[in-house]
Design brief:
Layout lengths: L2 E7 L3 E8 L4 E8 L11 E2 L1 H19 L6 E8 L5 E3 L9 E2 L7 H11 L1 H8 L8 H11 L1 H6 L2 E3 L1 H10 L3 E3 H4 L5 E2 L4 E2 L1 H7 L8 E3 L4 E4 L2 H7 L6 E3 L2 E2 H8 L6 E7 L3 E7 L11 E4 L6 E7 L2 H12 L1 H10 L3 H10 L9 E3 L17 E3 L7 H25 L4 E7 L6 H11 L3 E4 L4 H13 L6 H8 L2 E5 L3 H30 L1
Helix pairs in contact: 1-6, 2-3, 2-4, 10-16, 11-12, 11-14, 12-13, 13-14, 14-15, 15-18, 16-17
Length: about 500
């Protein structure tokens, strides 16, 4: 029996899971670490925390499992995307990493757009200039910390820094590199044009691999620290969403997944490069060689329900404690007793502005149609439906791009709600499923490692053998017809108030 390790280097902590070759969890371990916010809008982490957590968790799963280290055939790395790690000529970290949620780079985004051209930037990198992406962070350091930029010899992403520490290789892979805004997305290589226009030295960037390719091997020092065999292969791995796609089997045309976490994501696989020239969705290289994915993001998905819970559901919280159940379970049961349309009440989930399809930081949430007859239960149902409508918006952009979606997986905290999954099935008009394994990104990169180690011949073959469906929610035709009426009205509300949202932001 072969064993594979998946290391998921997240924002709050690193989770490492040891799997056997058919995807069973043998052992797992998690180590948390802090995020630093030296100023409002800033977000930084210490790269040493990621590496130490990766070492500690790999050592822990090996110790717990009792598996012979020679049976571990490969390691896959997943992680938070977009973070900037800068190394000097001696491979020392120059400054804390500026991570994905940092918002300091608005001026640099304007600089990128001016130098590359708005339309040309989307044609090459498949995205408009965004504060979250790595390129604007590089320019911010150059503009604001020239002494640090002058020392910089190598630029890495978070998981790729861990790779370097494990293998000594400066390397990345296509899915994570897609979020740097320096990659030529159609051609899956660094863009000489973008690098030239932004005056960034290409030699600072790592070699770009496909996600299941072998990028290096554990050094003797790293192997000893991890409790593994020297020479164990480390594959390219993937950014967190691309890894989650593999971990849910979204690796072929027609397949997609919806995540309801703090934000919401609709992620669709495609074997053809398709770019939305309006920049409403992200097109990235995916973890399957020579394929891509399109990803729509809605900012206030699970966040909307959490906001409602924290402000209006103290009674449910108290009752849940006495019953020994989750408060969201009780909230689900309440919302189930309200008809589709929440008695003519609609909710816009734009608590944090919006990305897909509106790209408007000034967008704000609202209840539309509120009357004296409405109760808390109606508002709760409206919040859940409003989030589902916003995810349908993401799906509609994908469909406008002629991306086939006929098989949908649900994941994230909200994906555990049968009511929310049924709403999605009815609104998408296709079955919505969950997978038996809840390991997501860690399983995804372990699958990539299994391909790199030649346990399986391809990513789709490995997923076919490993991924098992758990629950299935089929669309109900009468529900779909009823939701369609409310969804159509929902799509008309934001355009009617966009101008007022902008005025509100100026007050």
């Amino acid at each position: 029996m072969a064993y594979l390790i998946g290391v998921d280097i997240g924002t709050s902590g690193t989770k490492t899971v040891l799997f056997d070759e058919i995807g069973n969890v043998i052992a797992s371990a998690t180590v948390e670490y802090p995020m630093y916010q030296p100023k409002n809008g800033y977000a930084e982490q210490n790269p040493a925390d990621w590496y130490n957590a990766s070492i500690e968790t790999m050592r822990a799963v090996m110790a717990k499992s009792g598996v012979d280290k020679t049976q571990v055939k490969g390691i896959g790395l997943s992680g938070q995307m977009h973070g900037l790690v800068m190394l000097d000529k001696d491979y020392n970290v120059i400054r804390p990493s500026i991570i994905w949620c940092d918002q300091r780079t608005a001026a640099e985004c304007d600089e990128i757009t001016e130098k590359v051209g708005a339309q040309r930037l989307i044609e090459i990198t498949a995205n408009p200039a965004l504060t979250g992406f790595t390129a604007s962070k590089i320019l911010w350091v150059r503009n604001n910390e020239p002494e640090n930029y002058a020392k910089c010899r190598y630029i890495l992403l978070p998981k790729d820094y861990v790779r370097f520490m494990l293998t000594g290789e400066i390397a990345t892979e296509v899915s994570d590199a897609s979020g740097m805004q320096l990659l030529d997305i159609p051609n899956r290589c660094w863009s000489d044009e973008v690098l030239s226009k932004l005056d960034i030295d290409k030699s600072m960037l790592g070699k770009v691999y496909e996600s299941p390719e072998v990028t290096g091997q554990l050094t003797e020092k790293a192997a000893q620290l991890c409790g593994l065999e020297k020479g164990t292969i480390v594959v390219g791995g993937a950014g967190d969403n691309a890894a989650a796609a593999v971990g849910t089997g979204v690796v072929e045309n027609g397949k997609a997944f919806t995540t309801i976490g703090t934000s919401g994501v609709v992620f669709a696989h495609t074997s053809d490069i398709t770019i939305d020239l309006k920049g409403r969705v992200h097109t990235f290289c995916c973890a399957v060689p020579n394929c891509w994915h399109v990803m729509g993001v809605t900012q206030g998905a699970g966040l909307s329900l959490k906001w409602f819970r924290d402000n209006f559901c103290n009674a449910e919280k108290e009752t849940a404690k006495y019953m020994g159940v989750d408060e969201y379970y009780l909230m689900d049961k309440q919302a189930e007793n309200v008809p589709i349309g929440a008695n003519r009440l609609l909710y816009l989930p734009y608590l944090m502005g919006e990305r897909t399809p509106h790209l408007d930081p000034n967008a704000r949430g609202m209840f539309f149609g509120l009357s004296a007859m409405h109760t808390k239960r109606d508002m709760l149902r409206a919040v859940m439906e409003g989030v589902a409508y916003s995810l349908r918006d993401c799906l509609e952009v994908c469909r406008q791009m002629n991306i086939d979606i006929s098989d949908m997986m649900a994941c994230g905290g909200g994906g555990a709600s049968p009511l929310w999954r049924q709403m999605l099935a009815d609104l998408y008009n296709c079955p919505v499923k969950t997978v038996a394994s809840k390991e997501g990104p860690a399983l995804g990169v372990a699958i990539l490692a299994s391909v790199g180690a030649k346990v399986y011949d391809s990513v789709p073959q490995a997923c076919s053998a490993i991924i098992k469906t758990d629950k299935v929610q089929n669309p109900v035709e009468t529900n779909s017809i009823e939701y369609e009426k409310y969804y159509k009205l929902y799509t008309e509300i934001y355009p009617a108030i966009k101008e007022q949202c902008a005025k509100l932001a100026q007050l």
